[in-house]
């Protein structure tokens, strides 16, 4: 993964959030670590593969968004005098749907945002590529636990000493996260496209006062 263009997009977004929310001078690193942990939980929840108690262990990769305006019928009723006309719904153009999304990929790129955002706090010079680490021989469940361990380590280094090792831990984290993306079936291109899309949604949300 080529990091500099992603760091650049992430930096622009982070700076906008700090400006819009008046957070200049605040130490956001502890909150970013917790945010990543929360998003990792959300990603695991969409993956579903650890839910041994459930009949639904397949990843949630497609959700259709139904049109509330026409109640999914695709038609609007227009009354003229004694007559009702059915016309195609203007919200969904007669399809009954507003589109679809990929929840698991969405959560994956939310995690990527926070990993990059944490990286921005740690590096003066943007790393070109993740520093390679020997991958552990883990299944997806183990990979998630490894990522939680890594974020926990970062928290420990922040509060209990070892700040100088935070950047190494970040490299371990992003390596493990990229491997997880591969295991979940995503290509680098797919991830970068989804990241750019969500980055732009995040910009819009700040403008709209999210
Ligand atoms: O400094 C920051 C803070 C947030 N984000 C991004 C990461 C992620 O893409 C999004 C926050 O996650 P999400 O979109 O799930 O927001 P939420 O408020 O948790 O969503 P929900 O409306 O589901 O509660 O904001 C950043 O990139 N940099």
List its salient traits.
single chain, 210 residues, mainly alpha, all-alpha NTP pyrophosphatase fold, Chaperone, DNAj Protein, Chain A, 2 domains, two-stranded antiparallel sheet, 10% strand, globular, binds deoxyuridine-5'-triphosphate, EC 3.6.1.23, UCP030140, dUTPase/dCTP_pyrophosphatase, dUTP diphosphatase
Question: Could you explain how this protein is built, in words?
Answer:
The structure is a single chain. It is built from six helices and four strands. It has 210 residues and is mainly alpha-helical. The model has no long low-confidence stretch (mean pLDDT 95). The chain folds into two domains: 3-61 and 102-207, all-alpha NTP pyrophosphatase fold (Orthogonal Bundle); 63-99, Chaperone, DNAj Protein, Chain A (Ribbon). Bound molecules: deoxyuridine-5'-triphosphate (DUT).
Number of domains: 2
According to CATH, the fold-level topology of the largest domain is: all-alpha NTP pyrophosphatase fold
Order of helices and strands: HHEEEEHHHH
Bound molecule types? deoxyuridine-5'-triphosphate
What's the architecture of the largest domain, going by CATH?
Answer: Orthogonal Bundle
By DSSP, the count of extended strands is 4
Structural class: mainly alpha
Q: How would the global form be characterised?
A: globular
Strand order of the largest sheet: 1-4
CATH superfamily of the largest domain: Type II deoxyuridine triphosphatase
The description of the largest β-sheet is: 2 strands, antiparallel
Please report which band the strand proportion falls in: under 5%, 5-15%, 15-25%, 25-35%, 35-45% or over 45%.
Answer: 5-15%
Quaternary state reads: single chain
CA radius of gyration is 21 Å
Top-tier CATH class of the largest domain: Mainly Alpha
Distance between the termini: 30 Å
């Amino acid at each position: 993964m080529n990091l500099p263009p992603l760091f650049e997009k992430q930096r622009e977004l982070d700076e906008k959030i700090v400006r819009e929310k008046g957070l200049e001078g605040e130490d956001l690193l502890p909150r970013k670590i917790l945010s990543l942990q929360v998003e990792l939980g959300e990603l695991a929840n969409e993956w579903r593969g650890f839910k041994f108690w459930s009949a639904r262990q397949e990843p949630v990769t497609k959700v259709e968004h139904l049109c509330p305006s026409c109640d999914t019928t695709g038609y609007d009723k227009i009354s003229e005098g004694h007559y009702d006309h059915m016309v195609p719904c203007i919200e969904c153009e007669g399809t009954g749907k507003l589109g679809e999304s990929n929840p698991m990929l969405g959560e994956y790129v939310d995690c990527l945002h926070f990993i990059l955002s944490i990286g921005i706090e740690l590096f003066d010079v943007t790393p070109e590529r993740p520093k390679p680490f020997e991958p552990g021989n883990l299944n997806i469940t183990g990979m998630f636990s490894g990522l939680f361990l890594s974020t926990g380590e970062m928290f420990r280094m922040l509060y209990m000493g070892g700040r100088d090792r935070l950047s190494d831990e970040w490299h371990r984290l992003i390596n493990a996260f990229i491997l997880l993306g591969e295991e979940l079936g995503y290509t680098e291109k797919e991830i970068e496209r989804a990241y750019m899309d969500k980055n732009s949604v995040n910009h819009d949300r700040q403008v709209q006062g999210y």
